[in-house]
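Worked example

This section walks through a single chain of length 71. The input is the sequence exactly as stored; nothing has been trimmed or padded.
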Amino acid sequence: MAGTILSNFWAALIAFSFYFFVSFPFTNAFPILTHASILAIAMFVFTFIVRAIIAYVRKGPVMDEEDNVDF
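Given that input, the structure is written out below as tokens.
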């Protein structure tokens, strides 16, 4: 569980940093920080959803053929 949260924070930090450094020289500080923060929150949630989908696919409810046979 801790690995999932930490990877979500890393993805959010990378998104925040990338947006901040790309748009830094063009506008004032407040719009950059608000947009970068919104992007970081969105990336955190997106990473959580993607990791949940991957975990579901890897450990999903798959029935074996042996379990499906009635005696």
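What to look for: Helices lie at 2-23, 29-59.
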